[in-house]
Every structure is written in structure tokens, then in C-alpha cells.
């Protein structure tokens, strides 16, 4: 069933390196170097995995494409976030590390930062919205982090982080607005392309944009002709709106079953997207649930809703995948098995 294993840009010219950063000097070479150098850093201290690549003939048949799934749901902490957090913590100065780290997260980045901090023997404080899934709160606490709950708004998350920084001097390791985090996330795509070098497309889900930015930098360095396509929920589509308009367009109250994709893109990740990403597409909630269930059924692996968004885009013809060799990064597997979206509430 499964085993280990460009279309030209439309309406947009090829981006130049200076397009990558808005209002600052060109930093693309430095960012590419960070992705490359992160290979030697992200794995040893935290014992990160080189995750497997799986294929599925049933899903190939349904899509008309040849799909290669990079299974970050098998990564330490159950998501790709372990890569970026481990890279960022490993690069702290001894003086900064001694004061600990802090972040805000709905779950996966929080657990990843807690794990990386524990591995380096430093303190971690994680600001989590009170609505974050219980399974993700429990995973974060298991790594010894201090959890502070807040209201489920970006303003509340940022304010709580600011208080911790003022009180402790901790370093903020932002979930995506950080070059070391972006570089660490990019190692997933770099591994995928090292194993399957002739991909024509890589597609990833889009939330705050850290994974997309790292993926785009790694992919375009490997092969400038490869297409990088982001997919996001219709209810959290700031990336698609901004990609079309050329301006950041944050959504004030994003909503989706894909809770890991509710972050708003930063200036940093938005600029990298505009320079190196070929398309951003959106999908409905129903299509996310359908794609998630197909992966459970046919690949026999556990994924969270955010993971299913790229496959949902392919299945709903949000972009034409037929005949393509497509790499899909399955971002994580931290889902509450008692609350799967296709299980009807008995009440």
C-alpha cells in the first residue's frame, strides 16, 4: 500500500534576491546558508529523526499525481516544529541560554521548544491559549516547561510573552518570525529533496509561514524550477489574500479545524513567500476533513488536521497536480483521538 521511497509562474516575474526582505538588505544568501548549516545542528543534541518518506498508490490514483509524503508526524514531539526550535536553541549564546526561552504557541512549537530547552538544560516558558488542544498542552508540560494560559488572541499571547521577558530576561523564540527557526524547518524539505531529487512540486500547509519560508529557500536552492505551493484553510487565508494583493492582509479572527494554521504571517515570512513561492491556494473545512480521513484510511498513519490541507488542495483541484511528482510535508500527528472530526458527538 505504501513504501519508503515546473509549471511557470503565472502573472508574476521571477523574483530577485532583493525581494526577499522588505525594508532591509538582501539576506537570502545568509538564509540559504542557515538552512544548509542547520543540518549539522538540529539532530545531535535532541536526537531528531530523519523522517521517512511514504507513498500510497490509492492516493496517487485519486489525484493522478505521484505523491511523496515526508512524515514529520514521526518526528520528535510529533511535528516538524522540533527542527526549528532545536536549531534556534542550539544557536543561543551561553549568556542568553542561562536566562531561558519563551514563546507563544497553540501547541506544537511550544512542545518543540520545551523539548529543545530540556535537552540543553535551560528553562522554557510557553504561553498557550486556553483553547489549545489538551493533548498539546500535556505534551508541552511533559518536557518540563512552565505553561501560562492566556486568552485565544494574538494580542494576549504577545502581551504574556512580553511580561515573561521583562521579568526573566528570557529570549523569545518566535514560532516562525525567526531566521534560525525558518532554517531549521527548511531541513525537512532539504532531506526530502536529497531522497527524491526529481520532484516537480513541493507543497506545505501555511500558517505563520515558517515552514513555507524554510521549504521555499531549500527547494529553490536545490532546483530553481521546482514549484513551491502553499495551502491554507479558507477561514485562515491571510497568506492567499496577501499573495494576490502583494500586501500583508492579516485576518482578525481566523477560524479552522486546522488549529496549527491560525497564525498570521510576519513581514519576514511574507517577504520570503512573495519572492520564492509559486502559488497559495485555499481549501474548505469539509475538504480538510475528507483528506485527513483518507490518509488515516489508506496510509494507516495518524495526522492532525493541518497536515491534510495540502492533500485537500490537490483533491479539490485548487491547483493542477495531475502528472506531477509532488512532495508533501506531513507536518504533525498531535491529534486528540477522542475528538476526530468525523466522529459524531453522541450528545
TrEMBL record:
<dbReference type="GO" id="GO:0030170">
    <property type="term" value="F:pyridoxal phosphate binding"/>
</dbReference>
<dbReference type="GO" id="GO:0000287">
    <property type="term" value="F:magnesium ion binding"/>
</dbReference>
<dbReference type="Pfam" id="PF00291">
    <property type="entry name" value="PALP"/>
</dbReference>
<dbReference type="GO" id="GO:0030378">
    <property type="term" value="F:serine racemase activity"/>
</dbReference>
<dbReference type="InterPro" id="IPR001926">
    <property type="entry name" value="TrpB-like_PALP"/>
</dbReference>
<feature type="region of interest" description="Disordered">
    <location>
        <begin position="1"/>
        <end position="23"/>
    </location>
</feature>
<feature type="domain" description="Tryptophan synthase beta chain-like PALP">
    <location>
        <begin position="49"/>
        <end position="332"/>
    </location>
</feature>
<dbReference type="GO" id="GO:0018114">
    <property type="term" value="F:threonine racemase activity"/>
</dbReference>
<keyword id="KW-0456">Lyase</keyword>
<keyword id="KW-0460">Magnesium</keyword>
<dbReference type="GO" id="GO:0003941">
    <property type="term" value="F:L-serine ammonia-lyase activity"/>
</dbReference>
<dbReference type="InterPro" id="IPR036052">
    <property type="entry name" value="TrpB-like_PALP_sf"/>
</dbReference>
<dbReference type="InterPro" id="IPR000634">
    <property type="entry name" value="Ser/Thr_deHydtase_PyrdxlP-BS"/>
</dbReference>
<dbReference type="GO" id="GO:0070179">
    <property type="term" value="P:D-serine biosynthetic process"/>
</dbReference>
<feature type="compositionally biased region" description="Basic and acidic residues">
    <location>
        <begin position="1"/>
        <end position="11"/>
    </location>
</feature>
<keyword id="KW-0663">Pyridoxal phosphate</keyword>
<dbReference type="GO" id="GO:0005524">
    <property type="term" value="F:ATP binding"/>
</dbReference>
<protein>
    <submittedName>
        <fullName>Pyridoxal-phosphate dependent enzyme</fullName>
    </submittedName>
</protein>
<comment type="similarity">
    <text>Belongs to the serine/threonine dehydratase family.</text>
</comment>
Amino acid at each position: 500500500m505504501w513504501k519508503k521511497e515546473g509549471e511557470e509562474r503565472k502573472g508574476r516575474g521571477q523574483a530577485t534576491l532583493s525581494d526577499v526582505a522588505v525594508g532591509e538588505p538582501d539576506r537570502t544568501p545568509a538564509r540559504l546558508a542557515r538552512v544548509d548549516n542547520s543540518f549539522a545542528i538540529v539532530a545531535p543534541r535532541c536526537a531528531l529523526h530523519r523522517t521517512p518518506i511514504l507513498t500510497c498508490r490509492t492516493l496517487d490514483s485519486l489525484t493522478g499525481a505521484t505523491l511523496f509524503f515526508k512524515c514529520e508526524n514521526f518526528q520528535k514531539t510529533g511535528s516538524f516544529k522540533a527542527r526549528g526550535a532545536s536549531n534556534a536553541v542550539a544557536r543561543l549564546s551561553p549568556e542568553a541560554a542561562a536566562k531561558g526561552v519563551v514563546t507563544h504557541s497553540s501547541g506544537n512549537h511550544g512542545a518543540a521548544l520545551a523539548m529543545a530547552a530540556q535537552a540543553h538544560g535551560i528553562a522554557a516558558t510557553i504561553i498557550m491559549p486556553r483553547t489549545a488542544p489538551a493533548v498539546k498542552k500535556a505534551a508541552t508540560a511533559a518536557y518540563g516547561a512552565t505553561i501560562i494560559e492566556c486568552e485565544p488572541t494574538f494580542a494576549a499571547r504577545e502581551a504574556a510573552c512580553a511580561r515573561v521577558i521583562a521579568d526573566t530576561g528570557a529570549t523569545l523564540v518566535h514560532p516562525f518570525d525567526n531566521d534560525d527557526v525558518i532554517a531549521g524547518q527548511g531541513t525537512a524539505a532539504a532531506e526530502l529533496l536529497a531522497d527524491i531529487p526529481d520532484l516537480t512540486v513541493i507543497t506545505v500547509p501555511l500558517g505563520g509561514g515558517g515552514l513555507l519560508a524554510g521549504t521555499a529557500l531549500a527547494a529553490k536552492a536545490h532546483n530553481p524550477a521546482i514549484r513551491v505551493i502553499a495551502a491554507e484553510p479558507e477561514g485562515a487565508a491571510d497568506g492567499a489574500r496577501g499573495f494576490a494583493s502583494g500586501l500583508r492582509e492579516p485576518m482578525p479572527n481566523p477560524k479552522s479545524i486546522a488549529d496549527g494554521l491560525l497564525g498570521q504571517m510576519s513581514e519576514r515570512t511574507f517577504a520570503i513567500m512573495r519572492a520564492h513561492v509559486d502559488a497559495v491556494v485555499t481549501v474548505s473545512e469539509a475538504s480538510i476533513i475528507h483528506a485527513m480521513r483518507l490518509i488515516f484510511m489508506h496510509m494507516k498513519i495518524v495526522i492532525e488536521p493541518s497536515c491534510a490541507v495540502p492533500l485537500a488542495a490537490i483533491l479539490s483541484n485548487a491547483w493542477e497536480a495531475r502528472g506531477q511528482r509532488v512532495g508533501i510535508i506531513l507536518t504533525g500527528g498531535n491529534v486528540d483521538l477522542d475528538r476526530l472530526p468525523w466522529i459524531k458527538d453522541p450528545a
